[in-house]
């Protein structure tokens, strides 16, 4: 049974309920997680408030030392954490152990270092006879709500900057994938003081209770726009700070001078990794009309030769299949689209071509192994089509011409824009979007800043 972790101890929910955990690769129940109620959220917030009283006063050096030890502990449990992650998500084991978990541990180390770098504008006399300076302070108790697509990584992206900045945390993993998060908090109870990192298991009701809790000073959520809107409404009632990462619908603009071998290889990888359940997935290819047929044929070939893991649930697969069914008569299914005859929640890597800008498949975040392809004629058309969706997280441009790419770096309305690569990510690099993709940054110094508040302090002479 996966338990809540409150004050460093594994505790069952006070409500006594539980939820079955299903392995998406086999569609079988592999375990159970405790299902919390409002009393558990109260308890966890109380623990975080108690811990905040002293954690906020620790020096960056002390926090950093503990976080570096935390990273070492996670590293020494990488096989166990991988097993938990793989059974909850159905992810391929190698990519989980060799890429996702190590990259997440690097995030802990990054924030352990970043919190030791003093940053602030100059202390000086801006008014006669008064010296003014700036303090960057922790915000307080952070309520954090994570999704199921990268459970361990998203949990780390949430707690590490918050804790490094001197906050304490109540973190809710997705109800579908709580195991690696609960175990991480249990392991870290050996280094972090009790109450600094609390984990509460449960579904949307528990997330809503966290967002509405008067003891929570900041709410951070990665998930759907629907959940983000609900959280922002709840937080608005008491003016709690909100930090939202709500997915994307990334355009991939392929010009006629692009290196098509490299482009298609990288785009197919970025589209089908994690079965496309990725907010930065390279899902929306816009190809110049002179290379359109070639791009479609190459993507179709890549789809036929790519193996992906399952989707997270039957419901998520049904959602993607239902979206594919909205394809209008002018669209053409050129690869995949079928549900393989095997156990688990699989869907074939898919390419749908001939789409138009208003089609639902273009406008919606698909969050499955699906690439849509549209054709464009001029650079202005490409820009308008790329920007012509509600989401604004990630975009990429593929061309050999710097002068052609530069205006797109400026004019694409997305939180990350790259040329000849798609959504490169690192612990130092801010991640977060515009529009319905939400606001606030994860990672980088900007991620740390988001978990601090600015105070002007002044002293008269
Ligand atoms: P979701 O938004 O419902 O779930 C994400 C997290 O939010 C979970 O922990 C969930 O329990 C919690 N939650 C849900 N409703 C809440 C509420 N009203 N108040 C507080 N917490 C709440 O995501 P989903 O329904 O599992 O997936 C639906 C779609 O969301 C996906 O198809 C995808 O488009 C998008 N999504 C995006 C990301 C991302 O990385 N940005 C991650 C997961 C899902």
Automatic annotation (TrEMBL):
Task: State the UniProt keywords alphabetically.
Answer: Oxidoreductase
Superkingdom is: Bacteria
Q: What region holds the Aldehyde dehydrogenase domain?
A: 17-457
Oxidoreductase: is it a keyword of this entry?
yes
UniProt-listed InterPro entries? Ald_DH/histidinol_DH, Ald_DH_C, Ald_DH_CS_CYS, Ald_DH_CS_GLU, Ald_DH_N, Aldehyde_DH_dom
Molecular function per GO: oxidoreductase activity, acting on the aldehyde or oxo group of donors, NAD or NADP as acceptor
What's the name of the protein? Gamma-aminobutyraldehyde dehydrogenase
Q: What family does the database annotate? A: Belongs to the aldehyde dehydrogenase family.
Q: Where is the active site?
A: 245
KW Oxidoreductase (keyword) present: yes
């Amino acid at each position: 049974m996966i338990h809540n972790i409150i004050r460093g101890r594994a505790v069952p929910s006070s409500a006594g309920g539980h939820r079955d955990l299903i392995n998406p690769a086999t569609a079988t129940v592999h375990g159970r997680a405790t299902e919390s109620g409002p009393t558990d959220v109260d308890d966890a917030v109380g623990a975080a408030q108690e811990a905040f009283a002293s954690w906020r006063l620790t020096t960056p050096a002390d926090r950093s030392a503990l976080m570096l030890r935390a990273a070492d502990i996670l590293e020494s449990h990488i096989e166990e954490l991988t097993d938990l992650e793989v059974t909850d998500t159905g992810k391929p084991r190698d990519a989980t152990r060799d890429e996702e978990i190590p990259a997440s541990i690097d995030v802990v180390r990054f924030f352990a270092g970043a919190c030791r770098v003093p940053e602030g504008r100059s202390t000086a006399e801006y008014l006669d006879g008064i010296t003014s300076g700036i303090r960057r302070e922790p915000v307080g108790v952070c309520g954090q709500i994570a999704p199921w697509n990268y459970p361990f990584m998203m949990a780390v992206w949430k707690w590490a900057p918050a804790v490094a900045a001197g906050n304490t945390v109540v973190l809710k993993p997705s109800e579908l994938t709580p195991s690696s998060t609960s175990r991480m908090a249990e392991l870290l109870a050996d280094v972090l003081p009790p109450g600094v990192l609390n984990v509460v298991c449960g579904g949307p009701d528990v997330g809503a209770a966290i967002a509405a809790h008067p003891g929570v000073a900041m709410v951070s959520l990665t998930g759907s726009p629907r959940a983000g809107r609900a959280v922002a409404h709840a937080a608005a009632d008491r003016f709690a700070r909100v930090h939202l990462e709500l997915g994307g619908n990334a355009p991939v603009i392929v010009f006629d001078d692009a290196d098509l071998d490299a482009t298609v290889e990288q785009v197919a990888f970025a589209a089908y990794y994690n079965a496309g359940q990725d907010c930065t997935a390279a899902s929306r290819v816009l190809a110049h009309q002179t290379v359109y047929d070639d791009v479609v044929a190459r993507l179709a070939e890549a789809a036929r030769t790519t193996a992906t893991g399952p989707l997270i649930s039957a419901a998520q697969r049904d959602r993607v299949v239902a979206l594919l069914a909205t394809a209008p008569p002018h669209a053409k299914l050129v690869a995949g689209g079928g549900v393989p005859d095997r156990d688990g929640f699989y869907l074939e890597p898919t390419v749908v071509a001939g789409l138009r800008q208003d089609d639902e498949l273009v406008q919606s975040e698909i969050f499955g192994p699906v690439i849509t392809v549209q054709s464009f004629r001029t650079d202005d058309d490409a820009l308008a089509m790329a920007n012509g969706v509600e989401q604004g997280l990630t975009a990429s441009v593929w061309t050999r011409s710097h002068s052609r790419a530069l205006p797109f770096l400026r004019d694409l309305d997305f939180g990350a824009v790259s040329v000849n690569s798609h959504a490169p990510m690192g612990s130092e690099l801010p991640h977060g979007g515009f529009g319905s993709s939400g606001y606030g940054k994860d990672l980088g110094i900007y991620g740390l800043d988001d978990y601090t508040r600015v105070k002007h302090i002044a002293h008269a002479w």
